[in-house]
TrEMBL record, chains A, B:
Domain HTH arsR-type: 1-98
Organism name: Xaviernesmea oryzae
Key word Cytoplasm present: no
InterPro entries documented for this protein: ArsR-like_HTH (IPR011991), HTH_ArsR_DNA-bd_dom (IPR001845), HTH_MetalResp_TranReg (IPR051081), WH-like_DNA-bd_sf (IPR036388), WH_DNA-bd_sf (IPR036390)
Name of the protein in question: ArsR family transcriptional regulator
GO molecular function: DNA binding; DNA-binding transcription factor activity
Pfam families, per the entry: HTH_5 (PF01022)
Domain of life: Bacteria
Keywords: DNA-binding, Transcription, Transcription regulation
Amino acid sequence: MDKTEILKALAHPVRVEFLEWMKEPERHFSNQAHPLEMGICANQFEKRCGLSQSTVSAHLSTLEKAGLLKIDRVGQWAFYRRNEETIAAFLDELSSSL
Amino acid sequence: MDKTEILKALAHPVRVEFLEWMKEPERHFSNQAHPLEMGICANQFEKRCGLSQSTVSAHLSTLEKAGLLKIDRVGQWAFYRRNEETIAAFLDELSSSL
DNA sequence: TCTATATATCGGCAAAATCCGATATCTGGA
DNA sequence: TCCAGATATCGGATTTTGCCGATATATAGA
């Protein structure tokens, strides 16, 4: 849990938005073909943020490398879900250190 | 209280360090000529982080523009103190939205 | 008024971040 | 085996950030 890396990952509003969307999957990703329990399919984010596929992939990768997202690869898809443990640990750490 | 601007301000480890140092002034700035109750004098940060005067000034300015620091100008000095209201509001907001 | 000190701002350079389109990789199905 | 779809990675252009030294500004004191 690298606090600095996480803070850098959160320094872009699109990435913060991704995390917030994923907090309420049924609200923001109800049109997903796969069950939401599998996680959120990468292509779902493209439609919503208007950025290109490669840019979205990079944002997701940044969040994943920082430990904020977990990824499950199933077939040709990549399903992302929040890493609640890391997020909670980060918030605790930030609240006590800052 | 602009969450995005605050997160960008926190995306540099030196700035986070400044805020953390200021949480315990007597511990980190005990050598300050002026009473710590006035705030922390800008030049105190230079000695501790090894960066140039202009760079430190820019970091402090970033924190102040984000609302995380308040500044009191007294004579030729600039005294900085944490803006606890904004910091607490930001942490609350982040904890509930993230 | 002259000088010393503290801080802010400017100009320029280097590094990092952001974005895109193109391409590579991987999977599943025909 | 070939093709289509999903995602990752590459290459390059642009913007932002970070850093410094030099300079400007402002204050205090001689």
